[in-house]
Amino acid sequence: MKLTLIPAGQFTMGSEQAERLKAAEEYKRLAHSDKPVAALVGLFGDEGPQREVKITKPFYMAIYEVTQAQWTAIMGTTVVQQRDKAGPSWPLVGQGDNYPMYYVSWEEAAEFCRRLSHKTGKMVRLPTEAEWEYACRAGTKTPFSFGDDYADLHKYCNYCDRSNTLDVPYRDEAHSDGHDKTAPVGSLKPNGYGLYDTHGNVGEWCLDWYADSYSTAQTEDPTGPASGRSHILRGGSWSSHPAQCRSAYRSVIPPDGVIHSIVSGFRVVVTAAREHSEASTRTGVTATQAVARGYRVVKEPAYQMLLPEDWQRSTGLPEGIDGFRRTTEQGHDLTFLLHWEQFPVDAGEVDNDDVGQQFAKTIRSQYPDAKQRDTAPVSVNGKIVLNQAWDLTEQGVRLRRR
Fold it and tell me: pLDDT at position 357, please?
């Protein structure tokens, strides 16, 4: 899996009204729709309001979408088996080692990341929606990473154009990307960061829950709503209208939809090593100061803890840290309880030592000077619960009585 480093920076997220109007005009033109442009603009209404967003930490991103060979190596299933989960009557739209994986649910994409994290010792995850758009734009503010000319899209994007045999009214008959359905990853031109297929081919899952507006969204390392009913697909796909392949376009599969969609794939990011200075927030910091530095407050009945904002999302574990059920102030120890929701089995069926070592490795990768006190994996109601105590007080995690 080839990765490229995406630097920290700032960008304008979302689209302005003029871009949405142009997208609506293109949609009307190709679809021969009798609806007025003003009505079609609503198709893209969740792309605003535009706002300046800061990505404060660099990260590595896969330059290609996850391929079928990579998926099978980690998950053990083929694209045919994934298709069968949606239904045997559904078609295959590209098959081969270098074709992108599709018919992937969000939960399965997250599980792929967890398994790859475990295998490599790196923190592999899905990108946040902001990270995805930032990487897709590669420094641009135009509708596409290459500019604003729809006539150039076929050079960078596998979408529904003349080469596509899909029976839809909006096919772009004036251009051809050379591929009927999905294309082998990297078949077309990359963006400015060297990423391929950020426009088209398969839709790409993001970490965030979906919200239909950015009006209340954060502007620094946003991670989306705390909860929701659906997750987000970005980038458009082989079956998309050109306007649906823009950098700002957002797609969502409703909760009652087919979760193993014919257009749903993903690419991964790997959390870059933290600078030691970032991880060494000292005990004198207040909760307000910590939040301003990108930390969040986790409140428990008797205590509150300060953790890096992306802690739960970057652990690479099945459900992240499910909750801090017990904490103690003695010696500044913090005791975590981790619930492995993916393992509703007897404790004897899981290698507890391996689980404990992986969790310990995850913590040490973020907090090199952390001192482990003890560890005791146990089975609780058929689930593996991992109990580890660590002294992290000088490493950016602070425990204080509420």
Answer: 60
| Backbone torsions φ then ψ of 376, nearest 5 degrees | -155, 85
Its pTM stands at 0.70
Nearest to 309 by CA among 56, 9, 33: 56
- Alpha-carbon distance of 106 to 255, in angstroms, equals 11
350 to each of 239, 313, 320, 347, 377, how far by Cα in Å?
42, 23, 18, 6, 10
CA-nearest of 371, 378, 361, 342 to 120 is: 361
Tell me the C-alpha to C-alpha distance, in Å, between residue 383 and each of 85, 319, 323, 342: 26, 12, 14, 8
Read off the pLDDT of residues 112-157 as tens digits, 9 standing for 90 and up.
Answer: 998 998 888 888 999 999 999 999 999 999 999 999 999 999 999 9
- What is the pLDDT at residue 253? 82
**Cα 268 to Cα 126: distance, rounded to the nearest angstrom:** 5
Q: Where are the domains of the chain?
A: 3-271, 287-401
Task: Say which CATH topology domain 3-271 has.
Answer: paralog of FGE (formylglycine-generating enzyme) (3.90.1580)
